[in-house]
C-alpha cells in the first residue's frame, strides 16, 4: 500500500497538537479583546453576540449530531427529545408557557434554525456520520478563529458593515470546510490502514489544497465586491481584511481537527464506519450508475447547455464583465491550488451554468433577487463547495478505472463534503443575518441554495462526460 503523503503543516500539527492550539487560541482571544477595546462603540458586545449566535447555530448542532445514537429506536427517542426541547423553547419565547424562574428565552429564530441544521446533519448521517464525529472540532475552531479575527475587523471599521458581515459568513464556511476536509481524508486514510497520527497528518496536508482554493476564491470575490460597492475602485484594505478573517478560521479549523484526531482514542470502529459508508453509498448509487452511461451524461450536459443559452437570452447576464472576470480568476485559482486544468474547468463550468439557471429560476418563480455584490457572495460559497467536491474527482481520476467507477468513487468521497459545506454555509449566513443585522443575508441564502441544488444536478453528469473524454485519450 502506498503511504499517504504527509506535508510540513500536517506533520507539525500532528506532532505538536498542544503547541499548535496553545499558540493560536490565546493569540486570537487577545486580538478579539484588543480590537474590541480600541474600536469601542459597542464592538465588544457585537463580537460577544456573534460568538454566542455562532455557538448556538454552528457548534451546538454539530456537537449534538456527533453524539447522537447511530440509528434505530435510540435515535428516534433522541430526536423526539430534542424536538420536544425545541418546541418548549419556542413556546417559551412566544409566551405560551411560563417557568418558575425569571429566565430569558432564547430567540425562537435561533432555536428553529439550530434544530434545522441538526436535522440536516442527522439526515446526512448515513453519508457523513464519520465526518460529523471526527470533525466536530471544526465548528469550534472556525468560531474561535472568526471571533478572534472580528477584533481586527473592528479595528479596521468593518465589523458593523455589510462588508464585515459577508466576510464573517464566508470565514465561518471556509473554516468549517477545512475541518470537514480533514475529517473526510482522515477517515479514508485510517480505513486504508494508516496509523492514527500519520492519518491525521496526511489529512491535514490533503486539506491544504481545497483550503487554498477557498482562500483564493475569497480574494477573487472581495476584489469584485469592493469594485462593485465603490464604483469600480478596489478597496485593497477590505480585500486583505476579508482574507485575514478567513485565513484565521481556516488555520484554527484545520489545527483543531488534526490535533483532536491525534489526541482522541480512535479505534477500528472508525475504519468500520468508513467501509460501511462506502457500501451504503455504492448500493444507493447503483441505480443512477446504471442510468448514467457516458452517452446519457453527454446528452444531459448538452441539454443543460441549451437551457443556459435560453436563460442567458431570457434574463440576461447580471454584471457580465464582473461575472466573466470572477469566473476567469476562479479558473486560475483552481488550476493553481489543485494543479489540474480539468478540475478548474469543471468548477468554473458547473458554477457558471448554475448561476445562469439560478437567475432563470428566480425570474420564473418571482423571488426577489439579491443585490449584485450578494450574488457574488453566494457564487463564492458555491465555488467553495464545488472545490471540495471536485478535489475528490481529481484524486479518483488518478487511478486506472473506467469512467463509472471514477465518478462513483469521486461522489462517494466528495458528496459528503459538498453537502456538509452547503449546510455550514446556510447556517453561517443565518448566524450573520441575526448577529450583525445583515439585510442581504436572506436573499443571498436563497440564491446560494438554488445554486447548490442546480450544481448538485449538473456535477455528476459533467464528471462522467469529462472523465469519459479524458480516459479515451489515455494510451
Would you kindly provide a written description of the structure presented here, covering whatever features stand out?
The model has no long low-confidence stretch (mean pLDDT 87). The protein has helices spanning 8-15, 17-39, 43-67, 72-94, 108-123, 125-134, 137-156, 162-191, 196-206, 208-229, 236-263, 268-291, 294-315, 320-338, 341-365, 372-396, 403-435, 441-471. Helix 3 crosses helix 6 (125-134), helix 6 runs antiparallel to helix 12 and helix 7 packs antiparallel against helix 11. It has 18 helices and no strands. The two termini are 25 Å apart. With 475 residues, the protein is mainly α. Helices cover 83% and strands 0% of the residues. The longest helix is centred in the C-terminal third of the chain and has 33 residues, at 403-435.
Number of helices: 18
Share of residues in strands? under 5%
Mean pLDDT: 87
- How much helical structure, as a percent, in the residues? over 70%
Low-confidence stretches: none
Q: Which structural class fits the helix and strand makeup?
A: mainly alpha
Query: Which H/E pattern describes the elements?
Result: HHHHHHHHHHHHHHHHHH
Which term fits the overall shape? globular
Distance between the termini: 25 Å
* Rg from Cα: 22 Å
Topology, element by element:
Layout: H1 8-15, H2 17-39, H3 43-67, H4 72-94, H5 108-123, H6 125-134, H7 137-156, H8 162-191, H9 196-206, H10 208-229, H11 236-263, H12 268-291, H13 294-315, H14 320-338, H15 341-365, H16 372-396, H17 403-435, H18 441-471
Amino acid at each position: 500500500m502506498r503511504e499517504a503523503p504527509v506535508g510540513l503543516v500536517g506533520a507539525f500539527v500532528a506532532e505538536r497538537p498542544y503547541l499548535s492550539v496553545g499558540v493560536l487560541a490565546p493569540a486570537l482571544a487577545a486580538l478579539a479583546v484588543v480590537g474590541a477595546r480600541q474600536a469601542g462603540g459597542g464592538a465588544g458586545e457585537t463580537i460577544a453576540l456573534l460568538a454566542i449566535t455562532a455557538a448556538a447555530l454552528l457548534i451546538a448542532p454539530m456537537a449534538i449530531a456527533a453524539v447522537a445514537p447511530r440509528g434505530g429506536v435510540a435515535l428516534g427517542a433522541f430526536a423526539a427529545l430534542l424536538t420536544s426541547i425545541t418546541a418548549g423553547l419556542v413556546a417559551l419565547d412566544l409566551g405560551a408557557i411560563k417557568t418558575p424562574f425569571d429566565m430569558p428565552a432564547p430567540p425562537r429564530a435561533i432555536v428553529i434554525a439550530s434544530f434545522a441544521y441538526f436535522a440536516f446533519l442527522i439526515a446526512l448521517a448515513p453519508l457523513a456520520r464519520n465526518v460529523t464525529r471526527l470533525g466536530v472540532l471544526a465548528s469550534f475552531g472556525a468560531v474561535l478563529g472568526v471571533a478572534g479575527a472580528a477584533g481586527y475587523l473592528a479595528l479596521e471599521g468593518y465589523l458593523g458593515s455589510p462588508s464585515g458581515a459577508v466576510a464573517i459568513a464566508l470565514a465561518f464556511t471556509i473554516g468549517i470546510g477545512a475541518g470537514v476536509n480533514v475529517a473526510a481524508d482522515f477517515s479514508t486514510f485510517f480505513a486504508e490502514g494508516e496509523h492514527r497520527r500519520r492519518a491525521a497528518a496526511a489529512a491535514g496536508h490533503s486539506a491544504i489544497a481545497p483550503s487554498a482554493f477557498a482562500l483564493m476564491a475569497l480574494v477573487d470575490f472581495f476584489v469584485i465586491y469592493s469594485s462593485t460597492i465603490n464604483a469600480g475602485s478596489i478597496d485593497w484594505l477590505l480585500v486583505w481584511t476579508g482574507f485575514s478573517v478567513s485565513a484565521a478560521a481556516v488555520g484554527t479549523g484545520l489545527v483543531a481537527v488534526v490535533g483532536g484526531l491525534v489526541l482522541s482514542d480512535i479505534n477500528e470502529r472508525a475504519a468500520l464506519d468508513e467501509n460501511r459508508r462506502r457500501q451504503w453509498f455504492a448500493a444507493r448509487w447503483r441505480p443512477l450508475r446504471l442510468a448514467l452511461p457516458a452517452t446519457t451524461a453527454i446528452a444531459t450536459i448538452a441539454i443543460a447547455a441549451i437551457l443556459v443559452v435560453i436563460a442567458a437570452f431570457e434574463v440576461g447576464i447580471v454584471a457580465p464583465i464582473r461575472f466573466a472576470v470572477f469566473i476567469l480568476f476562479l479558473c486560475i485559482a483552481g488550476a493553481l491550488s489543485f494543479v489540474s486544468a480539468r478540475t478548474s474547468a469543471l468548477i468554473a463550468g458547473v458554477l457558471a451554468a448554475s448561476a445562469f439557471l439560478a437567475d432563470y429560476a428566480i425570474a420564473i418563480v418571482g423571488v426577489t433577487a439579491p443585490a449584485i455584490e450578494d450574488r457574488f457572495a453566494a457564487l463564492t460559497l458555491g465555488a467553495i463547495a464545488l472545490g471540495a467536491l471536485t478535489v475528490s474527482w481529481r484524486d479518483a481520476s488518478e487511478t486506472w478505472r473506467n469512467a463509472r467507477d471514477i465518478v462513483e468513487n469521486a461522489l462517494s468521497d466528495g458528496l459528503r463534503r459538498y453537502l456538509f459545506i452547503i449546510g455550514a454555509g446556510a447556517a453561517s449566513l443565518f448566524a450573520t443575518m441575526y448577529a450583525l443585522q445583515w439585510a442581504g443575508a436572506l436573499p443571498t441564502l436563497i440564491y446560494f441554495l438554488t445554486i447548490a441544488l442546480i450544481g448538485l444536478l449538473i456535477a455528476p453528469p459533467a464528471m462522467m462526460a469529462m472523465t469519459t473524454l479524458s480516459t479515451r485519450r489515455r494510451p
